[in-house]
Input
Amino acid sequence: MTDLASRARTLLDLHRAPELLVLANVWDVVSARVVASTPGVRALATASHAIAATFGYADGEQIPLDLHLDMVGRIVAAVDLPVSMDLEAGYGDPGETARRAIEVGVVGGNLEDQVRPLDDAVTAVEAVLDAGRDAGIDFVLNARTDVLLLAEPGADRDLLLDDAVRRGRAYLAAGAQVVFVPGVVARSEIEALVDGLGRGRVSSMSVPGASPPGRELAELGIARVSTGPFTQRVALTALQDAVVELVAGGTLPPATRSLS
Output
């Protein structure tokens, strides 16, 4: 088995394990090394929003794909853990984007549906998974549906959740390992997703001040929890707070550790 196939199998097994898979999203080499060296971390995921912000771009495929892939490739090369990439919506060609990601060592990814017609969205999922099969690996896809994220204000959330489940089932049937529905943080709505899609088939994002803690997500049947851009925001918040203290005549935090 090649190293790439081995990493892909490891990532797949982590998604199938009964324990919650925790993925603290990273955005550059130093953040990847810090997270990867933390006890208990078993895989990494990149955050497209955070990588784009690192280079001064807005989120939403504004960062050129070549630059995005270059950073992801550097992350992959810097760690020994399997890495999942946020493919966004596939940059106009999900299969080709996944192929290029695999070439730099990626073994899993997120793919947004942007609420495209369901047949088109399923075709995109299939194209990404075909790229994995062509490379001889079990590519682990976290299929994202944006029905709640892009919904009109005041839309019926029960109907939106029903649509998310309908789409999620189609993505799972096409071969996606898990389904991600951004905008869902309430316990009751998480339960509805798990009920509709199955235990171990739903992924979640940890949103500061809003999401249930990981131990509760595990009890609810969530397969994986990631952090999206929020880990970068945690780091930047600490930076700004330290600068405020320094400008005010204080010192840098005495508990600062040498992590780079």
Notes: Residues 3-228 form a domain with the TIM Barrel fold (CATH 3.20.20.60). The chain has ten helices and eight strands. The first strand starts at residue 21 and ends at 23.
